[in-house]
Design brief:
Length: 210
């Protein structure tokens, strides 16, 4: 199959690196919004990760000639009623940053003991082409929020997200180990199996959900 360019509808270089690495070996060149000219970025108005991912994927699939993949992901903390949720990237707005987002989470959980700091990362990926939904893939991983940032790898809330089976935060894991267990890694493996099963670039038909 001739290699095609798959547009990953994000300007987050960390997400582009992770997904590009996970799709190595497929006849697709993965490019992010930072690699190609594009119009205005649509605002995220959905109440769920799936709604936001669908809206972004459909929007860019109407202006991009090949397959388009959009994802929305974030952190849900039980003690905060599911927050930051879909507001994960902008939790410390205005002028949010990873450092400020993490600081706000720690302040809100200051009096919460370890057993009650349960959390999960959720990722929903949506594949579209020419204004049509092709597939939807969900992944999640459960852990808890630590009491201070640990580790220098990863991005976002990785320094706070403690994964009990490995006794490390996501920011303390190598990229390969993180991708093997993370919410995004689990979703992208479903995407990869879907693409491999098609044995050709996706187009047409009803969207698959996994």
């Amino acid at each position: 199959m001739t290699e095609r360019r798959l547009l990953l509808a994000t300007q987050n270089p960390g997400k582009v690196r992770e997904i590009r690495r996970a799709l190595v070996g497929l006849p697709l060149e993965v490019v992010g919004l930072g690699d190609v000219p594009h119009g205005p970025t649509p605002k995220e108005r959905g109440r769920t990760f799936a709604e936001n991912a669908r809206a972004k994927s459909l929007y860019y699939s109407r202006i991009w000639p090949g397959p388009t993949l959009a994802e929305d992901s974030g952190l849900e903390i039980e003690a905060l009623g599911g927050a930051p949720g879909v507001r994960s990237a902008r939790f410390s707005a205005p002028r949010p940053s990873d450092k400020k987002n993490n600081g706000k989470v720690l302040r809100l959980l200051d009096a919460v003991p370890a057993p009650a700091r349960k959390a999960r990362f959720v990722c929903v990926m949506v594949l579209a082409e020419q204004g049509r939904l092709v597939g939807e893939f969900r992944g999640e991983v459960r852990g808890r929020i630590g009491f201070a940032p640990r580790g220098d790898s990863g991005f976002g809330y990785d320094p706070l997200f403690y994964y009990p089976p490995l006794r490390k935060t996501f920011a303390e894991l190598s990229p390969g180990t993180k991708n093997a267990i993370s919410h995004r890694g689990r979703a992208v493996r479903k995407l990869r199996r879907f693409l491999e099963s098609k044995k050709k670039a996706p187009s047409g038909g009803s969207p698959d959900r996994a």
